[in-house]
Design goal:
CATH topology: Rossmann fold
Number of helices: 10
Distance between the termini: 17 Å
Structural class: alpha/beta
Radius of gyration: 18 Å
Strand order of the largest sheet: 1-8-7-6-5-2-3-4
Largest sheet: 8 strands, mixed
Shape: globular
Strand content: 5-15%
Helix content: 40-55%
Number of strands: 8
CATH architecture: 3-Layer(aba) Sandwich
Number of domains: 1
CATH class: Alpha Beta
């Protein structure tokens, strides 16, 4: 795990001060409260029912991925394929839920492992692309392209490869959930390469949604602020719990939401982007790498 850059820490401290006036920004937008979640509803007549979901969750070994598996099971999903690069980390889930959790090794940057997952998981009707990485690097300040290439390989190309592999079997009442970040909408320079990869992930989500619309497949973008997982453990600001995010994702799926925002920071950025996109760009530009 790579520690949060100083610019990211400065942003967290700035956010703590800024949060006290968030309600005024939100009220100016004349929208519903989005401290918990804000949704854009799809026009699907028959939305995903968790009790009918056979799910494949990537990055299920810890944090949000593990919580999604557990909440899917608690909500009545008959089977969940829990995947991770190190399958041993999933053994306890399979033991606790015999017959309902199947584990598999899956690195979404490897075409051979994606092909093996597709061949095995032929009954999946819900794909949850949760796997992602954050190298906490700037775009020009990084020593090389290595970190940016790794983020793009996982957060964009890996997610796209999973969508391409499983889209054919999701026709009808199937769904794809892509776990992104509110930083898909705005750049925090201290984590510039992450933001670029997440922005690409949002564009791919919108494109896949358009291509699958005629097939009746729901495609969901989940855009959170910081979540209390290893990926943001050094972030000093307020964080949503994995349980809160997972609960919002499942509720949004059953409503047919295409976008789910969670957490005060996501709400603030989303509202600010609607009101003054250049203003929020200038605000974020204060938090540089190093």
């Amino acid at each position: 795990m790579i520690a949060c850059a100083p610019g990211c820490q400065n942003f967290a401290l700035g956010w703590l001060k800024r949060k006290v006036v968030f309600e005024d920004v939100e009220a100016a937008c004349h929208g519903p409260s989005i401290h918990a979640e804000f949704d854009r509803h799809a026009s699907h007549e028959d939305t995903m029912k968790i009790q009918n979901a056979i799910a494949l969750v990537t990055g299920a070994n810890r944090g949000l991925g593990r919580e999604l598996v557990q909440q899917l099971l608690a909500a009545g999903a008959p089977k969940v394929y829990a995947s991770a690069r190190e399958v041993g980390a999933l053994a306890d889930l399979a033991k606790a839920h015999p017959g309902r959790v199947e584990t598999l090794t899956l690195d979404i940057t490897r075409a051979d492992q994606i092909a093996a997952a597709k061949a095995r998981c032929t009954d999946v009707n819900l794909l949850v692309n949760n796997a992602g990485i954050n190298r906490s690097k700037g775009l020009l300040a990084a020593d090389s392209l290595e970190h940016a290439q790794a983020e793009v390989a996982t957060n964009y190309l890996g997610t796209l490869a999973m969508c391409r592999a499983f889209a054919p079997q999701l026709t009808g009442k199937g769904a794809i959930v892509n776990v992104l970040s509110i930083l898909a909408k705005v750049t925090l320079p201290a984590m510039g390469s992450l933001c670029a990869s997440k922005a690409a992930g949002l564009r791919l989500t919108e494109g896949v949604r358009a291509e699958l619309a005629a097939r009746g497949t729901l495609v969901v973008a989940v855009m959170t602020g910081p979540v209390d997982t290893d990926m943001s453990r050094d972030f000093a600001g307020p964080k949503s719990s994995p349980a809160e995010v997972a609960k919002a994702v499942l509720a949004g799926l059953e409503r047919g939401d295409e976008e789910i925002y969670l957490g005060d920071m996501a709400a603030w950025i989303n509202a600010a982007m609607a009101q003054d996109p250049k203003g929020i760009e200038r605000e974020m530009a204060k938090y540089l790498p190093g």
